[in-house]
Design brief:
By secondary structure, the chain is an alpha+beta fold. It has 2 domains: 74 residues, Double Stranded RNA Binding Domain (2-Layer Sandwich); 86 residues, Winged helix-like DNA-binding domain superfamily/Winged helix DNA-binding domain (Arc Repressor Mutant, subunit A). Helix content is 35%, strand content 14%. Helix 3 crosses helix 5 and helix 4 crosses helix 5. One of its GO terms (molecular function) is DNA binding.
Length: 190
């Protein structure tokens, strides 16, 4: 049982591990929604053969809540058949950060809504989209505190110079996700 800092109702947190092309993603959530996705640190980029590896739940499958099922289905599609992500239900989020009214929450929701698969946006552009053009640094802070990476695609936020910038899962992970999206988008364009 977990009690949040705000003393809100307790939720029974369940955990699941998804074996993905970028390593093991640790996902937690309750009946109400997702709490977080923890990314593994990558020291080397997976090769082509590994990156098309199966994407499946390897721990916790027996007690998955609906949001966890939706999350793993969405991530499976993201890695294996990205065209399907648009038609899949987005899991509900139940992380305090995404429920409190704040600039961080606004930035994360804007990113989720406006920056599509295979696109990238600069910190400054995202600040503009979220309604505060001078808040590029705050956008960086929001990206660092994103509890649901990949689904809320903070890897798509890059520096104005075109450099990838930092990432919670490490720069290799960010580069892999961006090139995965670029390749998949090119495939879909044919």
């Amino acid at each position: 049982q977990v009690t949040s800092k705000e003393g809100e109702s307790q939720c029974k947190e369940k955990h699941v591990v998804l074996l993905s092309p970028v390593g093991k993603l640790k996902i937690s959530g309750c009946e109400t929604g997702l709490h977080e996705i923890k990314l593994p640190k990558m020291s080397v980029l997976p090769s082509g053969a590994e990156s098309s590896a199966v994407c499946e739940v390897c721990e916790g499958a027996e007690e998955m809540t609906e949001p966890l099922k939706q999350c793993t289905a969405w991530l499976h599609a993201y890695f294996c058949e990205p065209a399907r992500t648009a038609s899949l239900p987005m899991p509900a989020f139940h992380h305090p950060l995404l429920r409190r009214d704040s600039f961080t929450r606004q930035v994360l929701w804007t990113l989720l809504r406006d920056v599509k698969f295979g696109e990238a946006v600069s910190y400054k552009q995202l600040a503009d989209l979220a309604g505060n053009s001078r808040a590029a640094r705050a956008v960086g802070g929001a990206m660092r505190s994103n509890p649901i990476p990949i689904i809320i695609p903070c890897h798509r936020v890059i520096c104005s110079s075109g450099q990838t910038g930092s990432y919670g899962g490490g720069n290799l992970m960010k580069e892999w996700l961006l090139s995965h999206e670029k390749l998949q988008k090119e495939k879909l364009a044919y």
